[in-house]
Design goal:
- With 431 residues, this protein is of the alpha+beta class.
- It has helices at residues 2-61, 94-103, 129-147, 160-167, 179-190, 200-211, 231-238, 283-289, 361-376; strands at 80-83, 86-89, 110-111, 220-224, 228-230, 239-241, 260-262, 265-272, 295-302, 305-313, 316-320, 326-327, 341-344, 351-358, 385-387.
- It contains nine helices and 15 strands.
- A hairpin with a 2-residue loop joins strand 10 (305-313) and strand 11.
- Strands 1, 2, 4, 8, 9, 10, 11, 13 and 14 form a nine-stranded mixed β-sheet that branches.
Length: 431
């Protein structure tokens, strides 16, 4: 009986071991199969994600002209269209409006240009939109100085002065205001690596600095900060002593004998009109800016999408969009857009910069009068302040003649994160 019990116990133990071994084997097989399935699913998901990302980047950076076929140039309305300080009718002035837009320089993304320093970048796709907007403002200002505001471009335009201006914006390092010079100066001034997004204030500060190196010396750039326009500081930047210091007898001339000239002024007024979105109380004042005779528009745009704003109609702003990638080339018709775009003014990013061109001191004085009457006295919430002299409590914020720009941090996600080597500050030069 004892031996029988031992036999039963031994058999039961063997059966339990077999069951346990089978269960372990099944579990192991299941785990292996599950791992294989998970690995397969993970590979498929990764492939789908990579494909989707590639399609997204392909769409974002594809070559496409600025057409905006989904809507006409301007709405059918009796409301006035204000463009660069001039009033037009959307019904009766379409040819004039189209000529005006086509005549403004359009600087867009470019590709296949010489690499920018040691960064290796041969295109500004995805990061150069605000730099291009700054180029559009400066190129437009120089053309207005050289050719006059009433000048109009056409496909056969070959005027020497026109070509001299536009060649300064070619995508080569030797060009005075090329994407190379702007991005390298941004790195030198503000330690912003080549290939990163600029805010409107940063690009204004960089252009101010670059203009000091321009041998033609035909424009002064002033950037008003802290929501304050100080008249004396602007005039200090623009009034140039042209006196021959020595008189006929070889002595120094008295102050009363000195002569001064006004250097044409490109004025940027950097503002932030809200925290994360445009504050509606500032919209009337922003519209008024487009009606002032000296306006050159606004550089700003929607979040992560810089635009050059030329004017407005009803509650929409009219803009030139740099987000079209074209091959780098000498100035030709690809430097001029066929049609503008329109978006609601409420969609604008609150960080922007007003732009004005004052070719003479009289034009600047008239601008100050318009600002005082139409923007400050006429509004409970003016866009900015204006004063003759900087008050004592603001002397700590006094900008030096070569002050570095303060980078914006408002919409800086519109660029690719790449590992790069950069030009050192010592390597930066104007050729």
């Amino acid at each position: 009986m004892s031996s029988y019990s031992e036999y039963v116990m031994s058999a039961s133990s063997s059966m339990m071991n077999s069951v346990r071994d089978a269960a372990t084997s099944a579990t192991s097989s299941a785990a292996t199969a599950a791992g294989q399935v998970a690995s397969s699913v993970s590979g498929v998901c990764h492939g789908v994600a990579s494909s989707a990302q590639q399609k997204l980047l392909s769409y974002k950076y594809e070559d496409r002209q600025l057409s905006y076929e989904d809507k006409p140039d301007y709405p059918e309305t009796d409301s006035p269209v204000w463009m660069l300080g001039q009033q037009y009718s959307a019904r009766y002035d379409l040819p004039e409006l189209r000529e005006l837009v086509t005549s403004r320089p359009w600087l867009s993304y470019r590709k296949e240009f010489p690499a920018i320093g040691e960064s290796g970048l041969t295109s500004d796709q995805g990061w150069g939109c605000m730099l291009r907007c700054g180029q559009m403002v400066l190129a437009g200002a120089l053309l207005d100085i050289k050719m006059g505001r009433e000048w109009r471009w056409n496909k056969d335009s070959k005027e020497e002065e026109y070509l001299q201006v536009m060649e300064k914006f070619m995508d080569i390092k030797s060009a005075q205001y090329s994407i190379h010079q702007i991005s390298l100066m941004g790195e030198s001034l503000d330690k912003k690596p080549v290939g990163t997004w600029f805010g409107p204030n940063t690009v204004a500060q960089v252009l101010r600095k670059l203009c000091k190196f321009d041998p033609s010396d035909d424009i002064a750039v002033h950037v008003a900060m802290d929501n304050t326009l100080v008249i004396s500081e602007v005039k200090q930047a623009c009034i140039v002593d042209t006196t021959d210091d020595n008189d006929e007898e070889g002595g120094k001339k008295d102050e009363s004998e000195k002569t001064y000239n006004w250097k044409p002024l490109l004025l940027f007024i950097s503002l932030r009109l809200g925290l994360h979105e445009m504050n509606p109380v500032y919209i009337p004042g922003l519209k008024t800016c487009f009606t002032l005779p000296s306006t050159l528009g606004v550089i700003g745009g929607s979040p992560n999408h810089a635009l050059y704003l030329l004017g407005y109609v009803e509650d929409e702003v009219i803009f030139l969009d740099p987000h079209t990638t074209q091959a780098a080339t000498a100035p030709d018709q690809t430097y001029h857009a066929v049609k503008p775009g329109r978006i609601s003014i409420s969609q604008l990013d609150p960080s922007l910069s007003l732009c004005f061109l004052c070719r003479t001191e009289e034009e600047f004085d008239n601008l100050c009068i318009c600002v005082q009457e139409q923007l400050i006295e006429a509004s409970r919430t003016p866009l900015f302040e204006m004063m003759l002299e900087r008050p004592p409590h603001m002397y700590g914020q006094l900008p030096s003649g070569d002050s570095t720009g303060q980078p914006d941090e408002n919409t800086g996600d519109d660029y690719e994160q790449l590992h790069r080597k950069y030009d050192s500050e010592d390597e930066f030069e104007i050729l």
